[in-house]
């Protein structure tokens, strides 16, 4: 055997000559062998030393070989053990094997048994390592099952294990809710049957219709089984039947190849992003509407500035009366006031039947001129008294909206 250290053997044998004979033989072959000459000494040395294997006789004073083995079994797993005896029988051999002894060798007078010992030691150690590896693998598998069960149970997403036939082996609560049935009714169904895919009701069933070749779940599961490669967050759409309605679902689908009970399976994780996609569409529509409103406001402000420009031209030509000049001074203080002025100029112009064609700026220029001619400050004061205009929106330099001096 190839190890990083010599194999340590404790040989318990009351026949000192036979014990030393085997010790010398094994030492030459690279083993490290300690001796004990009765069962009690053997138990003591085993408890204080570090050994890879126990070789033991049966017929010994103070404590028989089977008694030593029983005591070792009572305190823990029996270490790799070989019974070597010159006075055994079939009953002893059977009892030893039941207790977990790896091998049983009869010592003969010609010492031919010595040729077998090293081979049996190697086989016993190999057998024990395989057993330990198997037990560890089973423990790891059980741990993985528990971890998988925890993941499945706690995940907010739909998770299911699918075998190579495409049938569900395990499904979590989120999948059960979408399937609309308890877990025990979903186990063994095909994916389309679990989720009531519309293609499962048409034709021969899930996986047999032409549309099934494009199924976002089936194609990804098949790919993972064939290549061993997992898929992360693949986008897809599945249409399911809810009552008499067909409901499209937008999904993110992930797959991973796992081993469960020594069988390849695919773990499928499905995230329903339908509502998220709808919200995204609504947000984009809202942003477009805001952009449109901003463009509209920009246009109004631009028109308002053009109106001020027209008023300034009229003022330079002494075409505005004192009232309009006062309102114009107030309009210089902010776009809200300009907008207010613009709206009332436009309204007043159209109210007197001034829609005789022309551009918006020309119309508003005509409105300003008409406003000035009619002494519009008095007109606004009258509307303020009737509470038809919010006083807070007016700001006129040289006086308040009622015409009183500040």
Describe the protein.
With 406 residues, the protein is an alpha/beta fold. 51% of the residues lie in helices and 17% in strands. The strands form two sheets. A five-stranded parallel beta sheet has the order 2-1-3-4-5, with helices on both faces. The protein has a five-stranded antiparallel beta sheet with strand order 7-6-10-9-8, sandwiched between helices. A hairpin with a 2-residue loop joins strand 9 and strand 10. Helix 10 packs across helix 12 and helix 10 crosses helix 13. The relative contact order is 0.05. The C terminus is likely disordered.
Keywords:
single chain, 406 residues, alpha/beta, 14 helices, elongated, disordered C terminus
Brief rundown of the structure:
With 406 residues, the protein is α/β, with parallel strands linked by helices. The protein has 14 helices and 10 strands. The longest helix is centred in the last third of the chain and has 43 residues.
Helix/strand layout:
Layout: E1 8-12, H1 16-28, E2 32-36, H2 39-48, E3 53-56, H3 65-75, E4 81-85, H4 90-99, E5 103-106, H5 114-154, E6 158-162, E7 168-171, H6 173-179, H7 183-186, H8 191-194, H9 216-227, E8 231-242, E9 245-260, E10 263-272, H10 274-316, H11 322-331, H12 335-351, H13 360-373, H14 376-385
Helix pairs in contact: 2-3, 3-4, 10-12, 10-13, 11-12, 12-13
């Amino acid at each position: 055997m190839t190890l990083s250290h010599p194999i340590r053997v404790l040989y318990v044998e009351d026949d000192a000559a036979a014990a030393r004979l085997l010790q010398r033989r094994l030492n030459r072959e690279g083993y490290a062998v300690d001796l004990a000459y009765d069962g009690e000494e053997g138990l003591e040395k085993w408890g204080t030393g570090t050994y890879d294997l126990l070789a033991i006789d049966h017929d010994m004073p103070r404590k028989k070989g089977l008694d030593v083995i029983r005591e070792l079994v009572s305190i823990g797993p029996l270490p790799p053990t070989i019974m070597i005896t010159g006075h055994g029988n079939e009953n002893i051999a059977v009892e030893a094997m039941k207790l977990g002894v790896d091998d049983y060798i009869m010592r003969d007078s010609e010492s031919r048994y010595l040729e077998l010992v090293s081979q049996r030691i190697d086989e016993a150690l190999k057998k024990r390592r395989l057993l330990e590896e198997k037990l560890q693998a089973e423990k790891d598998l059980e741990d993985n099952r528990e971890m998988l069960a925890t993941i499945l149970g706690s995940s907010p997403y739909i998770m299911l294990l699918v075998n190579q036939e495409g049938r569900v082996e395990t499904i979590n609560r989120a999948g059960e809710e979408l399937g609309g049935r308890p877990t025990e009714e979903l186990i063994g169904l095909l994916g389309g049957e679990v989720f009531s895919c519309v293609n499962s009701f048409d034709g021969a069933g899930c996986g047999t219709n032409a549309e099934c070749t494009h199924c976002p779940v089936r194609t990804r599961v098949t790919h993972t089984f064939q290549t061993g490669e997992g898929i992360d967050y693949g986008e897809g759409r599945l249409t399911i039947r809810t009552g008499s309605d067909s409901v499209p679902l937008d999904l993110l689908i992930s797959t991973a190849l796992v081993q469960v009970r020594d069988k390849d399976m695919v773990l499928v994780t499905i995230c329903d992003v339908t509502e998220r996609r709808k919200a995204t569409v609504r947000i984009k529509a809202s942003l477009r509407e805001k952009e449109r409103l901003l463009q509209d406001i920009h246009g109004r402000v631009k028109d308002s500035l053009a109106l001020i420009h027209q008023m300034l031209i009229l003022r330079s030509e002494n075409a505005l009366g004192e009232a309009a000049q006062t309102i114009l001074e107030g309009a210089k203080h902010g776009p809200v006031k300009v907008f207010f002025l613009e709206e009332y100029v436009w309204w007043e112009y159209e109210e007197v039947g001034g829609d005789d064609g022309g551009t918006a700026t020309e119309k508003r220029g005509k409105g300003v001129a008409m406003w000035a001619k009619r002494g519009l400050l008095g007109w606004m004061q009258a509307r303020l008294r009737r509470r038809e205009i919010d006083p807070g929106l007016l700001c006129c330099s040289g006086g308040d909206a009622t015409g009183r001096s500040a």
